[in-house]
Design brief:
The protein has 170 residues and is an alpha+beta fold. The chain has two helices and seven strands, in the order ααβββββββ. It has a domain of 76 residues: SH3 type barrels (Roll), CATH 2.30.30.
Length: 170
């Protein structure tokens, strides 16, 4: 008898689980991908290649020839160019950003900056010495900083001045 009651109870429990409680979720899952169709757009139309020849009579400049201004007609063409023939100093092989001013000393009326390079060496520099990769010449040395004038070249080949400085690192 107990077995019969247990069977009836188990069948009622199973019948309770099969209700419509989650029917909306089942319908959503069933219909979620029904209207989704893969749609691939057609490839763009390929236009045939049309060669163009550049000649002297064309008003369009040849893109493969440099567009540098003529130094005869330009005010800055090569005027500020640094001396490329002078021998390089030791600190010109290091980027200016990698150099650190770590000290200052004065002998007589001349102030010297102590600079540490990335190879760990200390260098004594004064006004007029060259540092960095951009032809940087030291303008002045004080107990807190060194002012440097660099010469940089733009894409047209013209040289311009840029001021930088190295601050004393404590």
């Amino acid at each position: 008898m107990r077995a019969a009651y247990l069977m009836v109870f188990a069948s009622l429990m199973l019948a309770g689980c099969g209700g419509e409680e989650f029917q909306d979720l089942r319908d959503f899952v069933k219909n979620a991908g029904a209207d989704m169709r893969g749609k691939v757009e057609p490839p763009p139309e390929i236009k045939p290649y049309e060669p163009f020849s550049y000649d002297n009579s064309s008003a369009i400049q040849d893109p493969f020839k440099p567009r540098k201004a003529d130094p005869k007609n330009s005010n800055q063409g090569g005027i500020n160019q640094p001396n490329l023939e002078r021998p390089k100093e030791e600190l010109e092989e290091f980027p200016l950003e990698s150099l650190r001013m770590v000290g200052y000393l004065q002998q007589g009326n001349v102030g010297y900056g102590i600079v540490r390079s990335t190879d760990g060496k200390l260098h004594r520099v004064k006004s007029g010495n060259y540092v960095g990769l951009n032809f940087g010449q030291i303008i002045s040395v004080t107990d807190t900083e060194m002012k440097i004038k660099e010469m940089v070249q733009d894409s047209a080949g013209d040289w311009s001045e840029r001021e930088s400085s190295l601050q004393l690192v404590e």
